[in-house]
Amino acid sequence: MVEDKKTIFKNRNFILLWVGQTISLMGDNLYYLALMWWVLERTGSTAAMATVAICSAIPSVILGPIAGTYADRIDRKRLLISMDFGRAILIATPAVLLWFNALQVWHIFVIAISLSTMSTFFNPTLSAFIPQIVETENLTRANSLTQLSFSISGILGPSLAGVLVAFIGTASVMFLDAISFFISGTAILLILVKKTEVVVAEKRKFLHELKEGFVYIKNEQFVFSMVLLASVLNFFAGPIGIYMPVMAKNVLNAGSEGFGFLASAISIGGLLGSLFLSLVKDIKSKGLVIIGGISFGGLLIALFGISTHLWASLLILGLVGFFFSLTNIVLAAVFQTKVPNQLQGRVFGTLNTMSMGLRPVSLALAGVLSDLFKIQLVIFVSGVLIALGGVYGFFIKSVRRI
Q1: 37 φ, ψ to 5°?
Q2: Where are the alpha helices (DSSP H) in 134-169?
Q3: Residue among 55, 364, 34, 363 at smallest CA distance from 175
Q4: Tens of pLDDT along 281-335?
Q5: Among candidates 223, 201, 226, 214, which has minimal Cα distance to 346?
Q6: Which CATH architecture describes the domain 209-402?
Q7: Residues whose CB falls within 8 Å of the CB of residue 93, separated by 6 or more in sequence, listed in order
Q8: pTM for the complete prediction?
């Protein structure tokens, strides 16, 4: 049930959820860096890392609309607990295999698909669960604290992971993430809330609700234009995350610690972008902010591609995080304002699928390109193309006039 409290910090249910999620997000950042570094050390192959990313991307692309619709038709608390405990078991599996020196790369592919599937159902359910335990007047504060968790874990997690991998090993870092999911699931288990009524409906009704998300996006010119633009930009941005550990190891000579610092720099920039927007009362030209963030972020990615110094790269990626956070936050606010509340779960799930649909192709291409060209060149060209995509957005009237 929603607790009738004056401040969000006195809401026992939300604090349990927030603490559990913060610990879990920190564990995720530890796991991701440890995993990608192990794959790079084991195979020396960018293609192998790209395949892991593809396995993680495909379930969210395929199941996004279904998960968004499903979140309104189940006992949310039970699903959240099941997904957290399930992910704890999944992540503990490669840790045990690695401990006994039995972990193979194909194990990682299977686990990545399974983890992504669970996360695809967990995330929209979590968004729908928060209003059940937080009063309406505190929802903004609750969402701000949730975003703070992402920023803090994104800053501390990668840097800490880089150090931990070097000192205690990859298997131990994976175990820490498994424990973090167990803590998160236990915290949700302790939340006192009425059981969600399960909506019993015909299959035809479910498919009708699923279709509504696609129909809305098709009929709204601004939303449709941004989905197309995001699809293209995500295609060009795909290789960046795959190439970052290679840049840290082979170009910047910074090791796993350097990889962690690079990832943290983006999150620090994102946090500064969030703080900057929180100080701005109102943004009149939201379209220009969205377009500008894309354009400047793309140019900075191009600079990262030609950087050979760690500190310069950290500064550049920090600015990338800053400008991209401006785009993401303003765009999310526009969508939340324009999309009717009763359609948001379906529409956002569909938006994710459509905007990320080309990402698996991009990741596959990243592995091929790394064998044909220097990764610095691929990153540089990707950044330039992202910047040009932002410039193109200026000529889309429905985007420019938002």
Answers
A1: -70, -40
A2: 139-168
A3: 34
A4: 667 777 888 888 989 999 999 999 999 899 999 999 999 989 988 887 777 767 7
A5: 214
A6: Up-down Bundle (1.20)
A7: 107, 111
A8: 0.70
